[in-house]
Automatic annotation (TrEMBL):
Superkingdom of origin: Bacteria
Species whose genome carries this gene: Pseudomonas matsuisoli
Protein name as it appears in the record: UPF0225 protein
Occurrences of domain YchJ-like middle NTF2-like (ranges): 1-94
Length: 123
């Protein structure tokens, strides 16, 4: 989570995209990510909690507050983000990007499990 926040601060849009679950990347709006990153003055990140859920593949939640200023107002966003580990790397499960998988389809994370038994519960 900290690395993704740092990527927003530094304007590293490619990193933000690369750390999102590969099955969701094509639906990301790279221009919006880059514009928000560039137009914001980033004020800090507070990680409140993290919990690894275990299982195969491993899933985790990170609860955080990100603060930024947009030129007019200071903002704070609190979120509980879900992540999945695949191929030794952690990927963000973006709840704003629909997964093109039904319950009985193979999970897009590549685990080999059905979507309903894997990542669907974390979106």
């Amino acid at each position: 989570m900290r690395s993704r926040y740092s990527a927003y601060v530094l304007g590293l849009t490619d990193y933000v995209v690369q750390t999102t679950l590969p099955a969701q990347r094509s639906a990301l709006d790279r221009d919006s990510i880059a514009a928000w990153s560039a137009s914001s003055t980033w004020l800090g990140l507070d990680v409140e909690a993290s919990e690894v859920m275990g299982g195969v593949p491993e899933h985790a939640f990170v609860t955080f507050v990100a603060r930024w200023h947009d030129g007019a107002t200071e903002h704070a966003h609190r979120e509980r983000s879900a992540f999945v580990q695949s191929g030794g790397r952690w990927y963000f499960l973006d709840p704003t990007v629909p997964m093109k998988a039904s319950r009985n389809d193979p999970c897009p994370c590549g685990s080999g499990s059905k979507f309903k038994k894997c990542c669907s519960a974390y979106l």
